[in-house]
Amino acid sequence: MKKILFTLGCFCTTLLFSQGNCLLYPEGSDARKACELAYEGKSLKQGSRESQEMFDSILKLNPEYDWAYMEKSVAYLKRGLIVEGLELLDKAVELEPRYNLPYRAYWHFQNRNYKLCIRDLERYYKLPNAFIYELTPGGDKDMRLLLAMSYAKEGNLQKGIETVQNCLKSYKRESDFGLVDYHILGMLYVKNKQYKKALEAFDKQLKMTEDYPDSYYYMGLAYKALNKPKEAKMHFEKAKDKFLDDSHIRNGYLCYKVYYSDVLDEIDALSE
């Protein structure tokens, strides 16, 4: 699962060049020149005028260079130029679906367009050369978890749960598991009112890390639904303490975000 990603995340500040060995192209060819130019410019700051000019030069040499389209799109998308950015990203996907569909799906997920995220990831996993263990930019989550959450957000919680289960079953080693994999499973169980299964998942999550208030919050909801107010309040209090320790899940793509005010509301409700 910890394979090297060739996909560029939104949080990078310099360009990630990963288009392989330029020697694979014929010497003197425009494709070779474009590849070498990309390699020379790999340290340029993402979104800088110099990097954008470099992409223009690369695409003049090789209009089929998907990496340049994808990289060029990032600057537009980060600046809110959605139409222009997606046109470039769509071109990258058209030229090389395997390397670019996951990034476009990730972008759709981040922008709460779950239908398009599902479309791209379902298409991706049907590719004969798809990476089974495709990770999110940054490498902390399996993309199948984003697919699962997208199913859930579109109203198909059971399919989301099954997608997470199949993902976790595919891992070969303990080190394959991410820090929030079981949290996502437990969270979807709570949303689907399968509270006992949710608690089983969160027990496994706490063996991975006890730092996230989000997990204690959902455990509190499960105990509350099971009519165990004492256990529920205890877990809400733990969630509160973790928030005060500033140890909450920091990434922006869990889609069912827990806020400190949510925890306080639950504690107040159980204190009445």
TrEMBL record:
One Pfam match: TPR_6
Residue ranges of TPR repeats: 179-212
Keyword line: Repeat, TPR repeat
Signal sequence coordinates: none
Keyword hit for Repeat: yes
PANTHER family: TETRATRICOPEPTIDE REPEAT PROTEIN 6, UDP-N-ACETYLGLUCOSAMINE--PEPTIDE N-ACETYLGLUCOSAMINYLTRANSFERASE SPINDLY-RELATED
Protein name per its UniProtKB record: Tetratricopeptide repeat protein
